[in-house]
Design goal:
Blueprint: H1 5-13, E1 18-27, E2 30-39, E3 42-43, E4 51-52, H2 55-75
Antiparallel strand pairs: 1-2, 2-3, 2-4
Helix pairs in contact: 1-2
């Protein structure tokens, strides 16, 4: 069942913790590992920014995403 935008907003705004996971991409013929932020097991991004060279930057992005969702949910009186 598809969730509405508001349901997704609440889902991510109330995520208990931010985490990070690794992805591997081929860049100029070589495998390169990147860290990406995650909330509730799903990768999150803000604009074009989503992959980082270190884990802490990826976690910080996920926290920022969660905070943005929380602020928008509060503004819409959803939480």
């Amino acid at each position: 069942m598809a969730k509405t935008y508001e349901e997704k907003l609440i889902h991510y705004a109330t995520a208990p913790r931010a985490s990070a996971g690794k992805i591997t991409q081929i860049v100029n013929g070589a495998f390169v590992d990147y860290w990406v932020g995650k909330l509730r097991g799903k990768f999150v991004k803000i604009g074009d920014e989503f992959k980082f060279n270190n884990k802490q930057d990826a976690i910080n992005l996920a926290r920022r995403y969660r905070e943005d969702c929380k602020q928008e949910a509060i503004k819409k009186s959803l939480i």
